[in-house]
Amino acid sequence: MSSTRIHASAVETSSLSLPSSSRARASTSVWVDPASLPDQGDISSTAGNAPDYVKQLNYNTFFSYGVGDSECFGYKAGKDVKFVDVTVDRSLEHHGRMEATTIAEVVVNRGMLNGAGMLHGGCIAYLIDNCCSTPLVVLGLMQGANGVGVTQGLNVQFHSPASLGARIRIISTSISFGGRVMTSRCEVINKDSGRIIASALLNKMQPAMSKL
Questions:
Q1: What pTM does this model have?
Q2: Dist CA 88 CA 9 (whole Å)
Q3: I want to staple 118 with a disulfide (CB 3.0 to 4.6 A). Which of 66, 86, 161, 195 is the partner?
Q4: How far apart are CA 121 and CA 58, in angstroms?
């Protein structure tokens, strides 16, 4: 997942041509507009060079659209996810193209286990689907576009198990951001041992509003 990047520091963020942070950007012409969602999560401890409003709208989208309320599928797994870093870079390999990376962390609880006492593969896929979507949300916000879509394809490779109490880190990075199709990748890592639990490639697309 590593690549050579031109790191955009807090001083340099102005060169990234940031869009306005105004809530007036909310629109009803897109699938889900991050600017229209209620504030959720705490960005006070979220590192990274992304503007605070981008960090906040990323949280809002993750919890309102991805996790939902207590009656939604996977709520017990998603509700404790915290974003510890939201960063935007320009990749040297891709001729300065903007890329976004988010880092989320969560501790494995009993509601995330299978019958053998290990982190359930379906739960891993759920966390990846939601967390790996966030760099696309961030990139869209930075470019004045909409990065919220529906999942078109998710390819997950499982590498090692994780047990109750394991602290896992989900590192997700955007790959491409087209007008209709968007792609990102991620690694799920055991924060204590450094072992890779899973890796994945995610494709998302903007749905046709006429079909919703």
A1: 0.85
A2: 9
A3: 161
A4: 25
From residue 71, alpha-carbon distances to 76, 100, 123, 127 in Å are: 10, 31, 16, 17
Both tokens of 193, joined, read 């041992």
- Output the six-digit token pair for 5: 């990047």
Q: Identity (one letter) of the amino acid at 20?
A: S
Model confidence pLDDT, tens digit, residues 152-211: 999 999 999 999 999 999 999 999 998 889 999 999 999 999 999 999 999 999 887 666
Phi, psi of 24, rounded to the nearest 5 degrees: -65, -10
CA distance 208 to 24: 24
Q: 120: burial class by Cβ within 10 Å (0-12, 13-18, 19+)?
A: middle
Q: pLDDT tens digits for 15-70?
A: 455 554 444 344 446 668 898 899 999 999 999 999 999 999 999 999 998 899 99
CA distances from 17 to 49, 86, 132, 151, 154 (A): 14, 17, 24, 28, 31
